[in-house]
Structure formats: structure tokens, C-alpha cells
């Protein structure tokens, strides 16, 4: 979240000393950036299942829109900054007659973030969020929960980052067993090439009893070096990909375009 909005062209990334800069300088740079920007990856992908017959009922389009607005600069207690965030993830049965949407997941939130600098090196950051997620439907079709997340990212070097995230919350009446399938957290490992043309990510999300590990594998390739648009391949395997069918097993491979925050993934 911090790197996404900062011009890092003046720094060298070809050493393990990642972003050599004092905390005060970093916060000044961050606060000087535009307050509105991308929060998570924004993408549009289409694909097919790997565990069932491929036809116009099982192929689909998935897209994500994710933005943030900085409400208060990094002058809150503990040098934190306050963000208003919004992420929408949609599943579109575009190949069926009338092309209906299978599910839309709306995820607004408010987030406190803080970078972590050690010996004048940016080593990561922490974020505390209050969020809501729902599919916007009512009655027996409603799926929703209100939750708190605590996440942290560690930059091993310019190429490798590790993210951990845990959550707890109050579940809606129609999805009381959501934690059984989505568990209470995730672990993500990201690799980025030095020239920023290639990204690879592995996300592991254990279920409540750790008998299933929901898995996401993502590969990104930038065909035009000066652009932030990537060719994007994603494989989702497990439960809870969307809210409406959170208790149904999914194995989908999709391909399309992704517009990424400047330097890394954030889940």
C-alpha cells in the first residue's frame, strides 16, 4: 500500500538493502503522493474449470476493482495513516444466454497503515482494518460478514516479499459456517523480477480445521516495459472464492489483464 503510491525510480533495487531512506523522508514522500489510488490488483480475466466439463455454463469471467482514498496523512499516533478502501470482485457468466452475474462481492473498509523501517531500510508494513463484505442480496440468498483484519508484509529484498493476514468477525445468518471454509487467515509469498516485468505469487488460506488449504497461484508478465498492464494467469483451487457459493469446491484457471499497484501484491 505504501510503495504503490511512491515514485521509487531514484532508489536502487538490485541489493538486499531495500529502499534506503529514513522514516521521516519516507513519510514525507508518502504524504506528498496523490491521496487516491489502487489498493489491490485490478484485473479482468476469463477461464474454465479444471474439475468439471468445460462449456458455456462452467466458463466465466472474473474481475476485481480495488481503490483506496487516504483520509488522513501519516501523522496519527504511531505514525499511522488512515485509508478508506473499496474492493469489488465479480463473477460473470458471460457465455450463458443473457450473460447473468453469478455473484458480486462488495468489500468496503477503513484501514490504519504503518510502514516498518529498520536501520533506514523499508522492511515492510502493518495494517489494521475494519471491513464489511457482502453479496448485496437479501433473504436466503444473502451472504455477509463484518470483520477485523490484521496484516503484515515483510520485504526480504527487492524481489521477495511475504505477507501474513488474520481475521475475526461476525457472520451473517445465511453463512454461519463461513470460517469452516475460509478459515482465519492467509499466507502469501510474492516474487518480483528486478525489471518488474514478471510477478509470481502463491497464496495459502487454510480452512478452519486445516483439512483443506485454499490455494491461489498467480503469474504476471508485462509485455510493454513502460506500462503497468500485465498479462495475468490465475488458478484458484479450494473453497470460498466467492460468497454465494463459499461452501462449494472450485478449481478455475483464468487468463486476462491485470493493472497492478506499482511494486507488489497485497491480499
UniProtKB/TrEMBL annotation:
Pfam families documented for this protein: PLA1
Domain of life according to the entry: Bacteria
Catalysed reactions listed for this entry: a 1,2-diacyl-sn-glycero-3-phosphocholine + H2O = a 1-acyl-sn-glycero-3-phosphocholine + a fatty acid + H(+); a 1,2-diacyl-sn-glycero-3-phosphocholine + H2O = a 2-acyl-sn-glycero-3-phosphocholine + a fatty acid + H(+)
Cofactors required: Ca(2+)
GO molecular function: metal ion binding; phospholipase A1 activity; phospholipase A2 activity
Record: residues binding Ca(2+): 98, 142
Catalytic-site annotation from UniProt: 132 (proton acceptor), 134 (nucleophile)
Cofactor: binding comment: Binds 1 Ca(2+) ion per monomer.
Primary site of residence: membrane
Keywords, comma-separated and alphabetical: Calcium, Cell outer membrane, Hydrolase, Lipid degradation, Lipid metabolism, Membrane, Metal-binding, Signal, Transmembrane, Transmembrane beta strand
GO cellular component: cell outer membrane
GO biological process: lipid catabolic process
Location in or out of the cell: Cell outer membrane
EC number: 3.1.1.32, 3.1.1.4
Membrane topology field: Multi-pass membrane protein
Subunit structure: Homodimer; dimerization is reversible, and the dimeric form is the active one.
Record-stated family: Belongs to the phospholipase A1 family.
Protein name from the UniProt record: Phosphatidylcholine 1-acylhydrolase
Native source species: Cyclobacterium qasimii M12-11B
Amino acid at each position: 500500500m505504501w510503495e504503490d503510491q511512491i515514485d521509487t525510480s531514484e532508489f536502487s533495487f538490485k541489493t538486499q538493502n531495500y529502499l534506503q531512506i529514513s522514516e521521516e523522508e519516507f513519510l514525507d514522500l508518502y504524504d506528498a503522493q496523490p491521496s487516491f489510488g489502487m489498493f489491490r490488483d485490478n484485473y479482468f480475466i476469463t477461464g474454465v474449470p479444471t474439475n468439471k466439463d468445460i462449456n458455456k455454463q462452467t466458463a466465466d469471467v472474473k474481475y476485481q476493482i480495488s481503490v483506496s482514498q487516504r483520509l488522513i496523512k501519516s501523522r496519527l499516533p504511531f505514525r499511522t495513516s488512515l485509508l478508506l478502501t473499496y474492493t469489488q470482485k465479480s463473477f460473470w457468466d458471460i457465455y450463458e444466454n443473457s450473460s447473468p452475474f453469478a455473484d458480486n462481492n462488495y468489500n468496503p473498509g477503513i484501514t490504519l497503515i504503518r510502514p516498518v523501517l529498520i536501520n533506514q531500510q523499508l522492511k515492510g508494513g502493518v495494517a489494521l482494518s475494519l471491513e464489511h463484505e457482502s453479496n448485496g442480496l437479501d433473504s436466503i440468498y444473502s451472504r455477509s460478514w463484518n470483520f477485523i483484519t490484521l496484516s503484515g508484509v515483510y520485504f526480504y529484498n527487492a524481489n521477495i516479499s511475504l505477507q501474513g493476514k488474520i481475521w475475526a468477525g461476525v457472520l451473517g445468518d445465511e453463512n454461519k459456517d463461513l470460517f469452516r471454509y475460509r478459515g482465519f487467515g492467509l499466507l502469501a509469498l510474492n516474487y518480483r523480477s528486478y525489471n518488474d516485468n514478471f510477478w509470481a505469487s502463491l497464496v495459502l488460506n487454510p480452512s478452519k480445521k486445516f483439512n483443506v488449504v485454499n490455494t491461489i497461484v498467480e503469474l504476471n508478465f508485462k509485455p510493454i516495459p513502460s506500462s503497468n498492464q500485465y498479462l495475468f494467469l490465475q488458478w484458484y483451487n479450494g473453497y470460498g472464492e466467492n460468497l454465494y457459493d463459499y461452501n462449494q469446491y472450485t478449481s478455475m484457471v483464468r487468463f486476462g489483464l491485470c493493472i497492478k499497484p506499482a511494486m507488489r501484491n497485497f491480499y
